Amino acid sequence: MRLAIDHTTHYVFSGPVNRGMQRLRLMPKTSSGQRVLEWKMHFEGAQLQVEYEDPHCNHVALISFNPGVHEVTIRCEGLVDTNDENGIIGRHAGFMPMWQFVEQTDLTRTGTRVRSLLNALGAEANPLATLHALSRLIRERVEYAAGHTDSATTAEAVLQTGRGVCQDHAHVFIAAARALGTPARYVSGYLMMDDRIDQEAGHAWAEAFVEGLGWVGFDISNGISPDARYVRVATGRDYRDAAPVTGIRYGERDEAMHVKLAVQQQRVEQ
Questions:
Q1: Does residue 154 sit in the same domain as residue 252?
Q2: Is 231 found in the same domain as 107?
Q3: What is the pLDDT of residues 23-59, one digit of tens each?
Q4: Alpha-carbon distances, residue 120 vs 8, 18, 116, 137 (angstroms)
Q5: 53 and 130 fall within a common domain
């Protein structure tokens, strides 16, 4: 499947920004099940400073704001060929040792609610079946609902609230998988929706390392393993490692952010 992606993030500031920098993880990875054919990034009100690959093999672009800017626009567009690999990514790549994906982070730290979730898991035939059962259980316990959490909400807080979005589902899954001794990581990316092209945001899911298979994806929010409609962009121990945009700025603090995202299948000429 060939997917065309057009992703624009537009910032409007309440006053001039004296200085600002952003770290962008917006370029998809060429990895198992996907190949990046082309990818372009355009900036208005900002300049590209450097590009590099982080320890998770994420492509990172560092940009700086033009002095005194009132608006900044970041636009990414490209084509990615994908295949359905049943969610299997395979071998581990990158410079992060596997033990890093078993240790908990601030966002995924295990507490009484995660342990209670694990106590509700039934006995399964093998580790892969256990992870699928865990995914189903989280989907039952945490209703998909926006507006109840943010990027700093922990897995424990998500279970207490009982509501969240894809990011929250991923953090609960990661926390529980690590508590079981299974390496797990966060994935940010894109998903082609079946019912619409235009979207308000990207997507997030989780991956766990299963002996004999390697990394395997779990989209808890949709109750499936990623297929050819998914594009992996960045991975990390949690959202903070794989966040599409992070940064700092000096000047006026108020901002309005508008996101325009379109993901659609493109015809491939034979």
A1: no
A2: yes
A3: 999 999 899 899 999 999 999 999 999 999 999 999 9
A4: 42, 52, 7, 8
A5: no
List, for residues 163-183, the tens digit of each pLDDT value.
999 999 999 999 999 999 999
Beta strands in the chain (DSSP E): 2-24, 34-44, 46-53, 59-65, 69-82, 88-90, 143-144, 163-164, 184-191, 198-199, 203-210, 214-218, 230-236, 245-251, 255-266
- DSSP assignment of 54-80, as one string? -TTS-EEEEEEEPTTEEEEEEEEEEEE
CA atoms of 102 and 183, how far apart (whole Å): 5
Distance separating alpha carbons of residues 49 and 237, to the nearest angstrom: 26
Within this chain, do residues 196 and 228 fall inside the same structural domain, yes or no? yes
Residues 97 and 194 in one domain: yes
- pTM tops 0.85: yes
Per the structure, the complete domain to which residue 70 belongs is given by: 2-82+245-266
In a shared domain, residues 208 and 96: yes
**Number of domains making up the chain:** 2
